[in-house]
Amino acid sequence: MITFPNINPVALAIGPLKVHWYGVAYVVGILLACRIGRNLIKRYNLNLPTRVLDDLFPFAVIGIIIGGRLGHVLFYDAVYYLNNPLEIPQVWLGGMSFHGGLIGVATMTYIFTKKHAIDFFTLGDLLALISPIGLFFGRIANFINAELYGITTTLPFGVVFPNETYPRHATQIYEALLEGLALFLVLNLAYKRSIKLRNSKGATGCLFLCFYALFRLSVEPFKVQEVIVQLGTYSFGVGVILCTLMLLLSILLLKIRLHAYKNIS
Known about the structure:
Elements: E1 2-3, E2 10-14, E3 17-20, H1 21-43, H2 52-76, H3 78-83, H4 98-116, H5 120-144, E4 159-160, H6 171-193, H7 195-199, H8 203-219, E5 228-231, E6 234-237, H9 238-264
Parallel strand pairs: 1-4
Antiparallel strand pairs: 2-3, 5-6
C-alpha cells in the first residue's frame, strides 16, 4: 500500500494568481511535443514547414476544447445537459472527453491543412508521433490532482488517495506509462525502422489510434466506470465502448492506407 504523496496542486501562488501543476504539465507537454516535432520534420525530411506546429496550435486548442466538451456532453451525460443546456459551455466545471477532443483536433487539423495547402495525412502522422508526450503529462497531472483514480485493490502498489480509506489502482500512472511513454516509443521506433510505414501516409496516425485503444482497453477494467451502458445482459463502460469502436475503425483505416501505398508503389 502506498500513501498518496503530499503534493500541493498549486505549483506557484502570487497573491490571487495561482498556477496549478495541471496547467504546468500541459504547457510542458505541448512545448516538448513541438520541440520534438520540429526535429522529426528535419530528421525525416517531411514535406512540412518547420513552424507548422506553432501555426497549428490555436486550431488544435479550439478543437480540443470544443470537441472534448461536446464529446463529454454527448457520450457521457446527454440527458443532464439536455435539461441544463446553459452548462454546456461551462468547461471550467469539468467534463472533457478524450474521444471528443480527438475528433475536434482531427477536424481542425483538416481545416488547417486545407487552408495552408498541406497534406493532411503527413501532418496527421507527425501529430501521432508526438501526441503521446502530451498524454503522458496530462495523466501525470490527473495523478497530482488525485482525480480519475481506479477501483479499490489489495495489491501492494495500491495508492490511498486523499479522502479515501482504501487503496486504489493508480490508473492515471498506468495510462501515463502505456498511452504516453509506451505509445511514444512504439510509434517512433516503428516509424524509424519501417520505410513502408513512413511512405504510407496516414498509416502512422492509424497505428496511434489502434495502440491507444488497446492500451486504454487494458486499463479500463481497473477504472471506476462512471457511466454504464446496458447491452442485453452485459454492462459496459462508455470508455470501453468508445475504445472498441475506435480500435475496429483504426484497423479498417490502417488497411485502407496500406492498400493505397501498395497501389502507388
